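Morning!

This is the sequence you dropped in the shared folder:
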Amino acid sequence: MASGWAKDGAIQSQIDDSIFDAVAKVREGLSLEESALFCEECEELIPESRRNALKGIKLCIACQRRREEMAQSLNTFNRRASKNSLLR
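The structure's back. Tokens below.
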């Protein structure tokens, strides 16, 4: 049941789109490339255990954490403007 001027199934469609966007974002981050030996940002050695655990790593843990925190702070706007969509 939709509310207001929305069509039936509109809320489910928004949820599906949010999930699709989240999965696409994760897939973009996956890589089958060989991991870098040194961090691309700070040039510190990336530990072998990290390089082996995740393929295609280009950043050390500290730089990866900073990048994710910055992305999270920039990703606070719900572009679908739905008060019912709580998924990010």
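Headline: The radius of gyration is 18 Å.

More detail when I'm at my desk.
O.
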